[in-house]
Amino acid sequence: MYITTDRPATDTPVAGRVAGNVLALGMVSLVTDISSEMVTAVLPLYLVVGLGLNPLQFGLLDGMYAGVTAIVRLLGGHAADRWHRLKAVAGFGYGLSAVCKLGLMAAGSSVGAIGAVLAADRTGKGLRTAPRDALISLSSEPASLGRAFGVHRAMDTVGAFLGPLVAMGVLWISLGSYTSVFFASFCIAIIGVLLLGLFVRDRKPVERERVSLRETLAVLRQASVRRVCGWAALLGLVTIGDSFVYLVLQRRWDVGSVYFPLLPLGTAGVFLLLAIPFGRLADRAGRWKVFLGGHVALAVALIVLCGPTAWWLGVLALVLHGMFYAATDGVLMAAAGPLLPANIRAGGLALVQTGQAIARMASSVLFGLLWTMWDMRVALLVVVAALVAVVAVAAVVKPLEVSA
Q1: What is the pTM for the complete model shown?
Q2: Which one, 285, 319, 346, 388, has the greatest CB density within 10 A?
Q3: Which domains does the chain have, with CATH numbers?
Q4: Is Transmembrane tagged as a keyword (predicted)?
């Protein structure tokens, strides 16, 4: 049995309120996302336009960027459960990602070196994500998990919204120096690590029995957990990464390189506005329904990207893309959390995230291949067809014990 002690008042969930620990983790994510989104905002253009990568090469690198977290997510979640150090494992992940910003400065124009640094950065993200989400889940009442994750993701998205603006400001001040963006990103990431150490409270059990990896993997014997993992992975396989969405917008709408970092703001702004409302809706109407609805929004966004290039259609695509994230990111963790025992919450959530990460890695590579072999629109329409088919089946064969 997982019993906590020394639990501060700021970490005690109160009816109608979000726990202080969730707000503290939200501040850490806000600052960290400013740092990470500064890099994410300029990276696609830097690699494709600056270094001349073709869509397949970019797809391989983007897939690695998304998928290298797969194994370390599971290891990070298991280590946090085994040693009962959720905060420490998360902190190590945040610190590793911060240091990698300096690595990008040292990598220069070497694609191999950039790939290695991005792999290390995603390793840091993989290590921290499951322990962080476990802290949110364990600090909140089960009935309000959708709202708790919605609040956290909203705060996280404030950072995602500010990151591209800061990147554009640094590029303007430094006359287009990507190195300056990477250094500023490092400085901001360090602030996030300090906030974690000072304000986030760990969950320390009275009974400190170590959890084995076999025990963590054993949760897959539960049909509902197994189905959540399977559907999360399958849906991840039929989506495309953010970078490809922004590259399609840049190509079809002829967005200038100076304004390219602003494209993620459309997604982030909608995510920020809808994360909490969608979290509440998921608690009331059903988390699985909202989760699948988000994928429907993505399918419509991809169809819009294939159509005419009126400015308002580009805006609509970004709005739908933001709706997709608001309805899926935190909602999936809120749906999976109650299915998992408290003492292996981090490892269990990591299993869900690992399957999703592997699938998205494969998705990026496949989409890049389709784009390179055929055409941008053909690749998008293939993804839409697959996505609609999987969502239709998932709506019928929903995970057991997950509210419809």
Answers
A1: 0.73
A2: 346
A3: 21-204+215-396 (1.20.1250.20)
A4: yes
